[in-house]
## 1
Amino acid sequence: MSDSNTMEKIIDLTLDKNPEITAMKFGEEIFTYGDLELLSRHASTWFTALGLKGEPVAFMLPNGFEILITYLACFKSGAVAMPLNRRYAPAELEKVLLDSGAKCLVIELEKLYLLDDIDLSQTSVEAVYATGVVPREGSKNFYTLLGPAGPYEQAEHSAQDPAVILYTSGSTGEPKGVVHSYSSVEGIINSTSLALENVSSDDRILITDPQVHISGFLETFTGLYHGATVIVQNGFNLEQFVPALVNEGPTLLVTHIDVYVKLLDSGVTNKSTFAALRGIYTGGDSLPSAFQAKFYEHSGLIIQLGYGMTEAIWLTVARGADTKGTGTIGKTLPGVEIRIVDKEGKNLPDGEVGEMWVKGAMVTPGYWKNEKATEEALEGGWFKTGDLAYRDSEGTIYYSGRSKDIIIRNTSNITPGEVEQALYKNPDVKEAAVIGVEEEKEGHVPVAFVVKKEGSNITEEELKEFAATQIAEYKVPARIYFIAELPLTSSGKIDHKKLYDLLPKD
């Protein structure tokens, strides 16, 4: 599915759409396509007046209409939209502002205090807008942008011009700005629509994922491109989410696995709760088969698993339940190419584990102002994912872990995913995550962190004995720690770095 007008239909929301149709619902607020188009045109005139074409506009905003207006104003004016993680500490925010060279910062009023610990004069920021009456000297009220600064004129752009910069932490912990051009944003929207089995104007998409992250971004703009209604909430709250499932009639739901776990454990949902949905999806590299089976029995819906990353999304989708716990991430979507290669970059035959390299319209052209990282990540248009996988003779792909996460125990390779799958098969295990820890005698050993199901009294030794019935003895965790909940990243994935912080200190 390719459409050269994709970005034009995002930049001009009323193109081929009835401006009176509801584009977004946020609580009790309703915004039509015409509302968002008019307000974003006004904000665009301000960005143009500030000379921001081609420049990053940084914004730290919650889900809602303000963030949509900011994205759209950037696209219309030719500025580069640069959403920021709302969990940033002052030092992290400062580092990203310095790295990006952003000249404008839009920030929610509640986060304005972060600037007290930042010397903005050392950054490139020339204008700060906050969502409210601003108590800080030098800052302006965001809502002044909603009135025009002059006549509106859409900026010209090429397919290769940067449209969005999404900052992520690399393996070193240093921030890297993942660039998506107008062309790769088109690729993301087209691929996401295919993954969701063709989004249309009849769809209503329930969104709780942060719109500052790739997940919330792709859900929102795929919906808007197709004239759907996006029902937006600012994060997951059971008391708001379940009524929305029942009363708002959403047809599509894309969210993180922990939301499905909470819904299943809540005791307040049943099949009728999910009756309006035609499809539910999650992202990641695996979906525990035991949980999948329980959720299907509870809801009547299969959670379809999509694989991708900020640099390239969506790439594959597994539409059926992985009942055997094989770790499948499904088959490639149309327009996506995946190679499985060895350390020299040579293609491997079916059945052999190697690194996934991907190519397609949705792949990043590189990292913002970081030629070294770009050269390391891309080769001949192929993006090196750092993920290990193998492909069977029918083209189904099976995830095998991160290349840097491989645990080598007495020269034997272990992937965290296979150990986690074994632990999830125990009925007392609610959640599990595995990391590799250095050990003097064996090199590295797998260490597990487990959240027990309520009322469980299972012990470490009992769980080890169970694991030994599922996987080879050398793969059984050397230690198992029981914790109340697994730490998550801002995008809802398990934060393996924080698991290392939970290890007992010697």
Note: The mean pLDDT is 92.
## 2
Amino acid sequence: MEERSFGSAIRLFFNMSKSQADVQVLKARIDEGARIDGLHVCQLIAAMIIASIGLNVDSVEAIIGAMLICPLMGSVLAIAFSIASLDALLLKEAIKGLLLQMVVCLFTSTFYFSISPLSNQTSELLTNANPTIWDVVIALVGGFAGALGFSRKQEPSTLIAGVAVATALMPPLCATGYGIAMRDIAFSLSALYEFLINVVFIAFGAELVFISLHVPMKVEKTAEGIISKEELEKAYAESHKIRMRLIVCSVIFAIPCLFFSAMLVQRSIAEKGSVFETQDPYETEYTTKELRTVCPQLVGFQIGENHKFDEQNNQLQKRLVAIVETSSELADDQETMMKELIELNVSHLDMELEVRFEIAKTN
């Protein structure tokens, strides 16, 4: 009894039907989001130009601003809703709308990057052309959150804007346009694949919500306007078959991401190991070069930690000792300048520093 009560409490706590909008309201929102008109296209072009400039000059602020006004999310949610409700007509319109928007976006970004005097690959361009498994997870969870907010009674604009930023639909399309403008086919395909990954898994996450909310399926009615039992059973069977196919296709579609992710992890581990192997906390190489510019007599420079136990205070003292070897004795002002250079390069270590000047021994 207690187990049943606990389970009921959990289901009640995570009940997604609370504050759910009416089906007619939800359908109206979906239709509105999927509708493509002149205003929609103008908004899309404006967002695409802003995003392209952001990627071109490495401006995260411009990219986020573009994503906030980008209307691509409407078509993706319409695709998810049409699959959940078995609405073939809506699915067809949503896909056509998404393809039209992709053409507009690619044309705009390709045109911009063709005339831009900046042709270098910025970090933001590279980021949006390297799909990983983390993009899949973000898109899946983002689509789930987006559909959840979209299905509430209150207007979902704020949450949808947040999901649009998190899932980043527009930047990969911009990166694709950059690749086309630079005639870099591999770069274009990689960026386009990242965009499609986002679309597929946003729609997948949103579909899970719509199915959980039991959105009514579009089923053929009899002449009297009645849905027969046979038609209903047929619709449920068809729905199950479509969803299973989508799951399998989505998993297969995400497989290349696993390879990209594995390569990213391997590169990260290699770079981390390289840093640990070559790290120089005392800036020895850089300091040596600087010292040689002000002191042609420099023979060698070394620096390291020196530990001494202070019996009077009963504690271990740690300090830096720098040894400067020269071929001949230095003037006082030259020693002072060199000491200041050394202190400047190790000041971040916040340790007591002793600098010793020695004349190198000759064999």
Note: The beta strands are 298-310, 315-326, 352-359.
